[in-house]
Amino acid sequence: MSKTNKSYYEILGVTNKATPEEIKKSYRTLAKSLHPDNQKGDKVSEERFKEVAMAYEVLSNPVKKAEYDSGLSSSNYRSNQNTKTDSSFDDFFNSFYKGSQPSKKEFTTSLLLSFKEAIYGAQKVLSIPREYGKGKINLSIPAGVSDGSLLRFEQIINGAASEVYVTIYIEPHPLFKRDELDISVQIPISFTEATIGCNLEIYTVYGESVKIKIKSGTQTGSTLRLKGRGVKTPKSLGDMYVTLIIVVPEELSFKSEKLIRKVHDELDFNPRTDLRDFSQL
């Protein structure tokens, strides 16, 4: 990897006060534009991508970030001049990757995972680029990996120590939506279920059955939070958010329509009483 006089914060285009969300957003934007798949044969972009990947791996890890920030505030780093000693960048690099040698081969690639593979984790086979020779390597993708995340693997490729940087992309699911570790889903209910209340059985992304109680008078768009029913990782656990959508039948039998009209008249309910008179707008 080429040397740089920039700090990891400068590489990602953020300040040292940036939040984890800001760091991640900046990384994703840069990684997408600099990814080798979009910059065929551009060595400058490839090196820049590696710098961005290295910076994000450190700044996205609270422990490594704290150690790095401690180093930045030491006398070896002249923050007021935005410069480092010639060896400072390499010193930081070696402090995080013990035993790493400049001769190590590196290559970057991306993987498209199904929604389920990202949730459960997966074993994937990756083809080695031509310049590394023919062959394949096996990668263990951790459970709960998120879209746009960067994974780094130490591999022996054709007898040589190598570092593989993999950007993860996740296929959307037709039902579940994901935001980091949280899962959201829209569940249709009938207007009678919303009116008088009911008990529903739904399923999490892990296939677990969960029973929820719908209160009488529930409005469409109401959201229920199921704590701890989101994505699981070894260190974290997300929540599941269920949004209720009231769906009315498109067709009614004569008998059903007659009964509903009777209920309507009995209720004497007008949901628009709080609206202003449109003629006065």
Please name the CATH architecture of the largest domain.
Orthogonal Bundle
Count of beta strands: 13
CATH fold assignment of the largest domain: Helix Hairpins
How many domains in all? 2
Q: Outline the biggest β-sheet.
A: 4 strands, mixed
Give the helix tally.
8
Low-confidence stretches: 74-102
Q: Based on CA inertia axes, which overall geometry fits?
A: elongated
Distance between the termini: 65 Å
Element string (H = helix, E = strand): HHHHEEHEHEEEEEEHEEEEH
CATH class of the largest domain, please?
Answer: Mainly Alpha
The percent of residues in helical segments reads: 25-40%
Task: Give the structural class.
Answer: alpha+beta
How much of the residues is beta strand, in percent?
Answer: 25-35%
In short:
With 281 residues, the chain is α+β, with helices and mostly antiparallel strands.
Attribute tags:
single chain, 281 residues, alpha+beta, Helix Hairpins, HSP40/DNAj peptide-binding domain, 4-stranded mixed β-sheet, 8 helices, 13 strands, 28% strand, elongated
Task: Describe what this molecule looks like in 3D.
- This protein has helices at residues 8-12, 20-34, 43-59, 62-72, 88-96, 115-120, 191-196, 254-267, and strands at 77-78, 83-84, 105-113, 122-127, 136-141, 150-157, 160-170, 177-179, 182-190, 198-203, 209-214, 223-226, 240-247.
- The protein contains eight helices and 13 strands.
- The strands form five sheets. A four-stranded mixed sheet has the order 8-9-13-12.
- The longest helix is centred in the N-terminal third of the chain and has 17 residues, at 43-59.
- Residues 74-102 have low confidence and may be disordered.
- Helix 2 (20-34) packs antiparallel against helix 3.
- Helices cover 30% and strands 28% of the residues.
- It is an alpha+beta fold and 281 residues long.
- The chain folds into two domains: 8-170, DnaJ domain (Helix Hairpins); 177-265, Urease metallochaperone UreE, N-terminal domain (HSP40/DNAj peptide-binding domain, Sandwich).
- It is elongated, with a radius of gyration of 27 Å.
